[in-house]
Amino acid sequence: MRDEEIEKLRGVVRDCVSKHLYSSAIFFADKVAAFTADPADIYMQAQALFLGRHYRRAFHLLNASKIVLSDLRFRYLAAKCLVLSSIFLPFREELKEWDQCLSMLGEAKVDDEGNVSDTKDSNVMYLDKDCEDREINISSAICFLRGKAYEALENRAQARLWYKAAIKADPLCYEALECLIENHMLTCQEEANLISSLQFGSEDGWLSSFYSCLIKKVMQYDKENVVEAKFRELENESCKSDQSDTSFFRTLKSNTDLLACKAEYYHQCGEYQKCFDLTYVLLERDLFHLKCTLVHLAAAVELGHSNELYLMACNLVKDYPQMALSWFAVGCYYYCIKKYDQSRRYFSKATSLDGTFPPAWIGYGNAYAAQEEGDQAMSAYRTAARLFPG
């Protein structure tokens, strides 16, 4: 087969992936890899298998390749296959898969500041580089996956260090920062120090401001209008979307993530009505924005809006029955109407579904405290403080 015909087949594979026709992508990628035996085509075939949820088959393909030990992309995808193939395994077997994931990623050490050393991850082959898209550093993705593995193995101290390493290796690795913030792994000062240590590109000024808004705001209360200034800066950040009309700009002013961040700021400031009004409008636009949902629930509890809590809880349990947030919402409703025994039951169910969901532990403690059961309340608060130092 001629080179131009093979290149057309590669295009078919990419198009199948873009249209979510994964079986077709697997079929054609397999034929391309058979014709060429090129590492890039083998990687493309493994990607198609991964997207088609054939994780074991993809892992076998990658592991059979001699390149898997020397190429970071092969190793990273193989480790991801191990992780996702463990989802339906018994708990002990799942832990073994996470251990294998760490072995596949290779040995490396990280210090308290998130700096990686003693790593052999230096031989990187860049595959499928036909486009000029900006990429996230593969080393950052590997650090992030190490963090996820350690978190699954309940080694939160190591997970925290590897998440820090991931975001420091590439500030575009937002997921690492998200895990650090949402799991409350860092103190206020540590969050501020981490953001200030990141090396943003010249075009990423907006991202630096956005990250500054995401971290805990209590450290900034003493500085007048610091947080508000960051929000204004982001709201005024513009992008010319029509080159023929210089007066037409798009901004982040109505961006849902930014509005959710601002709502969280209002909540931390104790301005619950402003927080509730903002999240109410935002959820009308994006009903399934779960980060906003959590802030909305918290504000509704503070304001005593039991009807809103009831409706939110019903919808969440219907749409996300396996999520801790859904049962946390049920607990919030019962807490709001002062049925504390029932609220504890559902807060407990939320922690059983996700032991790393901080609001459920706090709610559990609050429900005990409302009935003046101080010892049990303190036990829940201590658990929260131990698991979530931030």
Automatic annotation (TrEMBL):
GO terms for cellular component: anaphase-promoting complex; cytoplasm. Coiled coil: none annotated. SUPFAM superfamilies: TPR-like. Keywords: Cell cycle, Cell division, Mitosis, Repeat, TPR repeat, Ubl conjugation pathway. TPR repeats lie at residues 324-357. It holds the Pfam family TPR_8. The keyword Cell division applies. This is Anaphase-promoting complex subunit 6. It comes from Vigna mungo. The lineage of its organism: Eukaryota, Viridiplantae, Streptophyta, Embryophyta, Tracheophyta.
